[in-house]
Amino acid sequence: MRLSLCCFFLGSIYKIESAKNSEAKYSFLAHIDHKRITHSTLEKVIRGFIAELDKALRGKLSAAKREEAMKWLNEAYTELSETAKNLPPLNDLVIELEHELRNAIPKVIDASNPDKGLKYSSGMNILIGGNRLGRGVTIEGLMITYYGRDAKQKTMDTVHQHARMFGYRQELLDVTRLFLPQHILEDFRAIHEADEGMRQVIGDDPNNIQITPVWVGPTLKATRSNVLNLAAINAFIPGSHIFPRHPLWKASEIRKDVEELDKLLASYESIGEKGEYHEVEIDFLIKILSCIRSRYWPGYPWQDDRVKDLLIQMKTQDISTGRLNVVRGKTGKGLELTRQEPSGWGGFGFINARVLNKPKTEYPNVPTLLLMYEKGENKERWDNQPLYLPTLILPKNKFVFMFNYSEVAEELEDDIDFQD
Asked: How far separated are the first and last CA of the chain, in Å rounded?
């Protein structure tokens, strides 16, 4: 938070001094939670930091405090220098900051705020909020975003709305920064890749869309909107990869399944960092996944039964074989991945982007199942039980596999709010 604020202060001063418009506005957005108590606490934290930094720079505190403040600002200056090549010297920016910093007053934007629209001051604006800043809002002069909003069920349209808060501002691009946790960044990247994959499949000609929806699991019947739970509908995007966020890992839950997998996969004893790819029947992939169980985690497409249904539906679309890669590590004795909580796995899950490149490039028209064989040791937060962690790469073809999590229609309130 301290680094993000210091980047904002220096970036704003730089732009204020070079702007042609003396009324230009620059904004810092903290979008972390929907709770008002969080907004109030964050406002006090930011207000206190600004007051301390202001006093330190103007010599109202000890020399040690000013030295500490300059250290913070120097860290931000180094960060901005990576992209802002015409930054004035730090001392010049600090001189101007001493005059402007007291005008940086944080504002909480939530339901308790009487202003319906966002009101800005010339120069620096610091905005804190949740739902009021979540959808359909473009922040004027947005330069720095401190983002920690981590809904359990991430809906793509809401995340896209959050991303649009940035807009596109060429004149601020060199000092624009986004601060957020790694796992949320990976979730954003996964949603972006799914969106791009859908666009590529649809193509550029709206009059010649060659894409076929294929239902997986219970189909949806035409009915009133208030008995259709839209949150239960999702899609497997062509060319994307999916994995279980909440795999079973305790020895008492998976020991027998792992023993069965050891037998099934005995002939796939490839050793190496990336393993080997084998052509196998779709039915064999289904058999493997029948021995790998997980708990469903809201907001993510992997659900054990639906994934197996997905492979069955591929067979109806003339996809009869796929690829299998059992990655066992350099020694063949298993990998040493640290277990994460369901929300802690990044967008690539159990593997990294490099491992995904080969199957996505060389086998784009068939499903590929990557199995990461893990030692499952206590020191990595497992249960001293080896296990197989799956990632399924979907074929990049002209099919979008749609599915419904619910087995039956649900009665929902008419005024349901689908915002996260």
From this structure: 24
| Cα 66 versus chain centre, distance | 38
pLDDT at 296: 87
Using H for helix, E for strand and C for coil, what is the string for 281-327?
EHHHHHHHHCCCCECCCCCCCCCHHHHHHHHHHHHHCCCCEEEEEEE
Q: Which residue's structure tokens are 């779709």?
A: 282
Contacts of 19 (CB under 8 A, 6+ apart): none
Instruction: For residues 88 and 201, give the distance between their C-alpha atoms in angstroms, rounded to a whole number.
Output: 47
- Alpha carbons 8 and 69: distance in angstroms, whole number: 15
Q: Residue 56: which H helix or E strand, with range?
A: helix 36-57
Whole-Å CA distances, 150 to 14, 42, 142, 231, 234 = 32, 17, 21, 17, 19
- Of the pLDDT bands very low, low, confident and very high (cuts 50, 70, 90), residue 136 is low
- Predicted TM-score (pTM) of the model is 0.61
Report the 10 Å Cβ neighbour count for 274. 13
